[in-house]
Structure formats: structure tokens, C-alpha cells
Amino acid sequence: MQLDRRGMNPVVRNDPQQSLIKVAAAQIEGAYGDVGANLTRHLAHMQQALASCVDLLVFPELSLCGHSAGKDALQLAMAADDPTIAALAQASTNMHTVFGFIEEAPGGQFYNSQATVSNGRVIHVHRKAQLATYGKLRDGLYYAAGTALESFPLNDRWQVATPICADLWNPALVHALACDGVTLIAAPISSAREAVGEGFDNPTGWDVNLRFYAITYGVGIVMANRIGTEGMMTFWGGSRILDPFGKTVSLGSETEEGLVIGELDYESVRRARFLLPTVRDARAFSWRQSAAKRDLTVRQD
């Protein structure tokens, strides 16, 4: 029999209590290139999250190595079975932890990746698909682009995806995830005020971006950004949790490290998607398009 994290009550599949989850964004100031120091920082925040009975903890993009670490990928990259990742997996007892690293894959390929671990296992790895190579951003110079959009179940109610930063600026990717059943987006980002260039206000832009997705698709969102400086980049924090109506559940400061914690209720997903059935209608439209293409192929034959 599986017990809850307190070892007191049996976990029942389809239990209505699975509707309510506690989530957190770990807003940190990372140490560039110092995986050991960043691992220590991760473990400390994980202990705080466990003490608060958090179900899902999200760290920023490239949280283990630093925002601009791509140029040092040969020294900083690790495989998904690296001892550092194993240590985080072992520490993530009865909690899902999402963190960023440079992944070295077979064939000498390097990815900007986000791993999800729980109870000693790697549950999921997402490779950033939309590589930001504009303004002061250089992803495309160092990383291969991910080619898969996948998700994982947190429990019987919540299906989670972990699109990384610029992935969220491609609406087609988020649309596909929502239509594929995702109900919660863990959004690890590494956003600096100077990243894009003159005329773009990154904090305001991210606020609009995330609220749009939450409202349009009826999804909960946990966004984790970093703070501090790295080179000429100034990171503005602002980590947050949004409910499926786009309302702010919890908001972090622009300068302070710490956990941003809040609760999300699956009942809000049900109500939001009933009142504004974007996902329902988008799925129907996609099915009609596929059917039309099949019919056209048959006629052409």
C-alpha cells in the first residue's frame, strides 16, 4: 500500500484530494559554472519545499550551471544518469522536482534540458525546442534543438509539461501541449531585462504571455526565474503561480531568493475549460483538418 508523504494515510487513485496540489517556484541566484555550489543550493531549497509538503518544485532554466553556460558545455554538460542528477532524484522524496542542466546526449549532442525527478528516478527530460538566438541570447550557437513535446502525470488529475523559456514564445508549442492533455505548465525561464533589446520590457512581456496561456487554455502555471546578475545580464525574478483563470496565486520579489508557494485546484481547470472551451474546440478543429486531409488524399489517388 502506498502512503502519503506523512506516512499516515493510504493514497487512493482518483481520490478527490488529488485535485488540490501545492506547487512552488525556487527563485535562486545561481553560481555560473559551479555545479557543486548550485547543487547545494538546490538541495537546501528542496528541503524547505519538502517541509512545506510541496508536490511540484520548479527551478529556473539551466539552474545547475548558469544562464550563459552554453559556451562551456564541454566542461559542464552531463548525461541524464550523472551522479549530480541522481543526488537530486534521491533527495526528491514524494515530490517532483524540475531543474535545468546542459544534457550531453549520444553522438556528441548538447541540449538545454529540464529534468524532472522524484523518488530516486528521472521521470522526464524536456529538451528546449525553441532556441533563443537574438538580442543577447545565444542558444542556437551551442545547443541542438529538441524535437519532442511530451508531458508526464503528477497524479491522476494533473498532467505536466516543462517548456523552457523561449518555448513559451512559440504559441504553436503551447497549443499542441494543451490539446494533448496538459493541465499544468511548469515554466522554467532565465529572463534578464537586457535579453531581447530596446523596446522590449521583459517583466511586462512575461506577465502578458503567461496570463494569455493560463486564460486561453485553462492551465495552471508555475514560472521560475532567477535573480542577480551574470555578466551584463540583470535577472528580474518575479517567479509566480497562476491559476487557470489567469489570476496570480503567488508572486515572488524582483530581488530576493526563496520559494514562491501556492496551491492549485483541479476544479478550477474543470470550470475554466467548461466556461471557455478553447481546448475542446481546438481538438475538434484539428480532427476536422486531419479528416479533410485524409479525404483529399483518397480523392487524389
Structural class: alpha/beta
Residue stretches low in confidence (pLDDT < 50, at least 5 long) are 1-14
CATH architectural group: 4-Layer Sandwich
Note the total helix count.
8
Tell me what portion of residues adopts beta-strand conformation. 25-35%
- Can you list the strand order of the major beta sheet? 5-4-3-2-1-14
The average pLDDT is: 91
Choose one word for the global shape.
Answer: globular
Could you characterize the architecture of this molecule?
By secondary structure, the chain is α/β, with parallel strands linked by helices. The protein has one domain: 4-Layer Sandwich (Nitrilase/N-carbamoyl-D-aminoacid amidohydrolase), CATH 3.60.110.10. Helix content is 31%, strand content 25%. It has a 6-stranded mixed beta sheet. Helix 1 (35-51) links the parallel strand 1 and strand 2. The protein is globular, with a radius of gyration of 19 Å. The model is unreliable at 1-14 (pLDDT under 50).
